[in-house]
Write a structure and sequence with these properties.
Number of helices: 3
Number of strands: 56
Helix content: under 10%
Structural class: mainly beta
Largest sheet: 6 strands, antiparallel
Oligomer: single chain
Shape: globular
Length: about 625
């Protein structure tokens, strides 16, 4: 399934020289045993984007003792130094120090001297094992072209077809006959067949969209929930709730959380990092319905009760605040004051760990009591003795959650404050922080259908006061926009629309907040129609620029457009994803050998007419800047 290789090179001298200098420990089993591994550069023939393999003139290959390589000590086990680039090569490297948790780092350059400024591609592989087996382990390197998006590996068409043509009874049969990642499933009433959908752990384990992704203290990216199944317009949450991308080895994993049920489906939930290896998941909805509007935009129907199986109706909205520790593999589900989805949350200042939870959508209860839904009016259903309207209500509530130190217990209470309007599709922005980096003033901005005079409110954490900011744009009504702080401390906003799923209409803005007022001015990039989008992502890059990624454009089509916006507000560079996608996630890597790269995960594309959701073709993608 990978490109065949026609060259082989054995590198001995430099490795032997280095090991003699480092005093490599002998292997106790057999001191004369030559320990080796094979580095496979075959995928360099498949570098994507604008970089051509022919442009690469040199490379440098290093093998490190640790994954990721140590910053504080020299852990280099092998250094090829600068060599002429050899496409489709296999490198057998001998006389290595045995052990696990090694890593391979390769840089390829456009010139013949390995000049840093001419870096054209990088590759990194962690979790490498060097052992005493007779056949050296072979590790395939995935090249990431610099300043472009690289799609992570997916099964070849031939392998997918082979799987679909292979009958089976067990996963093991598929793994032996097709591929180690193949599995057996009930393809039809007639019987089972093999399937091949992913090259996990080199790529995502399952497709998902409208998920959340947050970064843990060790730099790992945790992806939570999201849509995992689509059928006849019904969108169900995935039953693989958690997936982690580790920057130490550039691999994905599905963590095991003791007792956690994958049947807890969730989308339109909120996730925040709680420090260390902990996260907090707030609310969410288990399923919704997609419909097309007459103008070509989308309409997402979010019922409070789900009855996809007429014999099994259930409350569609979650009222949980679930704390998860990936260190211990434990979790605890705590309660919110009420069921809610689409809420936004942010850590705030105060004693201990406190979280501000704002707005969202939830139940609208009528005044009627009930013992069954027959006692309720049309458009209502019976929920624990109260009639509840099927259509959700945008909420004006503000909750304060407090996490207990050293445990997963979280207590959430209604603050009794009320927003000026119900907000869904709104943004939270930390305006001021204390000395510990915790937020002391929070801006609550926008939301679908919010009136212009109430476009934003300011919550003062220390005083507990909530006030509407006086706006210079009384006609502005926008939700789904993304706010981001620039390296110079300014606030930029990107994208958005007037209604959930509606056509993108909001141009990029500079947001100015001062003395109880808020004002907006268009950025220089506002004249570029490609900036109009919804269900997009924004990332603050390490060099101070802002990356605007994917989404639905002003023609209601999934876009592969990526714009790099400078601190002046102008578009400085344009790039492209390998697959158009919206409702994806884009997360900056903060640690590891590929630190400051951006990981793109999940999302949908759209078929043209009639519009229907399709999973993106390439799973995850990685953007690697020049260091």
């Amino acid at each position: 399934m990978f490109t065949p290789f026609h060259k082989k090179m054995t590198v001995l001298a430099l490795c032997a020289l280095f090991l003699s200098l480092s005093g490599c420990a002998a292997v106790e089993k057999d001191e004369n045993k030559e320990l080796s591994l094979v580095v496979d550069m075959g995928m360099f023939s498949e570098i994507q984007g604008g970089l051509l393999q022919a442009e690469l003139g040199s490379f440098r290959l290093l093998i490190h003792e640790y994954s990721p390589p140590s910053d504080s000590s020299n852990d280099v086990l092998f250094d090829s130094e600068c060599l002429p680039f050899q496409p489709n090569a296999l490198f057998e490297i001998n006389n290595l120090k045995a052990g696990s948790g090694r890593s391979i780092n390769l840089e390829a350059f456009r010139d013949a001297e390995c000049t840093e400024e001419e870096l054209g591609a990088r590759a990194y592989r962690g979790g490498v094992t060097i052992d005493t087996s007779d056949t050296p382990l072979r590790y395939v390197l995935i090249p990431y072209g610099t300043e472009e998006f690289t799609a992570l590996p997916i099964p070849s068409e031939a392998t997918v077809n082979q799987a679909s043509e292979t009958s089976c009874e067990t996963d093991a049969e598929c793994q032996e006959a097709v591929h180690p990642r193949s599995f057996c499933w009930q393809a039809s009433a007639e019987g089972k067949q093999c399937a091949m959908t992913t090259l996990f752990p080199l790529n995502n384990y399952v497709p998902r969209a409208m998920h959340t992704s947050v970064t843990l203290d060790d730099g790992s990216i945790v992806t939570v929930g999201g849509i995992g199944q689509t059928s006849s317009g019904v969108l169900l949450g995935t039953d693989t709730t958690f997936e982690i991308f580790s920057p130490s080895d550039n691999l994905f994993e599905v963590p095991s959380i003791k007792g956690y049920s994958g049947q807890v489906r969730m989308l339109l939930h909120e996730t925040i990092a709680m420090g260390g290896q902990k996260i907090l998941i707030l609310g969410g909805i288990q399923s919704m319905v997609l419909q097309s509007r007459d103008d070509g935009s989308l309409s997402f129907i979010t019922p409070t009760q789900a009855c996809w199986d007429p014999n099994n109706c259930y409350d569609n909205i979650l009222n949980t605040a679930t704390a998860v520790s990936f260190d211990s593999g434990n979790y605890k589900s705590n309660s919110l004051p009420g069921p809610v989805f689409g809420t936004r949350a942010m850590p705030i200042s105060g004693n201990g760990s406190r979280i501000l939870v704002v707005g969202g959508a939830g139940h609208a209860e009528s005044s009627s009591k009930c013992s069954s839904s027959d006692n309720c009016d049309d458009g209502e259903w019976c929920n624990n003795g109260d009639c509840v309207v099927v259509s959700p209500q945008y909420k004006r509530s503000i909750f304060i959650c407090a996490a207990s130190q050293g445990s997963l217990t979280v207590s959430c209470e209604d603050s009794e404050l009320e927003l000026s309007e119900g907000r869904f599709g709104h943004e939270l922005f930390c305006l001021e922080k204390d000395d510990d980096g915790k937020c002391t003033k929070v801006v609550i901005a926008g939301g679908y259908g919010v009136k212009g005079e109430n476009i934003a409110e300011l919550y003062d954490v220390e005083s507990g006061e909530l006030s509407v900011l006086e706006s210079d744009s009384p006609d502005k009504s926008v939700g789904g926009w993304k706010w981001i702080e620039t390296a110079e401390g300014e606030i930029f906003s990107f994208g958005g629309s007037a209604d959930f799923g509606a056509t993108a209409t909001e141009t990029p803005q500079r947001v100015v907040i001062s003395d109880g007022t808020i004002s907006f001015e268009e950025l220089k990039s506002a004249s570029n129609d490609a900036t109009l989008r919804t269900f997009h992502e924004v990332v603050a890059m390490a060099d101070g620029s802002i990356m605007l990624v994917g989404g639905l454009d002003s023609n209601n089509a999934a876009t592969d457009s990526v714009l790099i916006v400078g601190q002046s507000g102008s578009v400085e560079k344009e790039s492209s994803l390998n697959s158009p996608r919206f409702a994806a996630s884009a997360t900056l890597l903060t640690q590891g050998p590929l630190s400051n790269a951006v990981v793109i995960q999940g999302g949908f594309s759209l078929s043209p007419e009639p519009k229907a959701l399709e999973w993106t073709d390439n799973g995850a993608e990685l953007y690697v800047p020049i260091p």
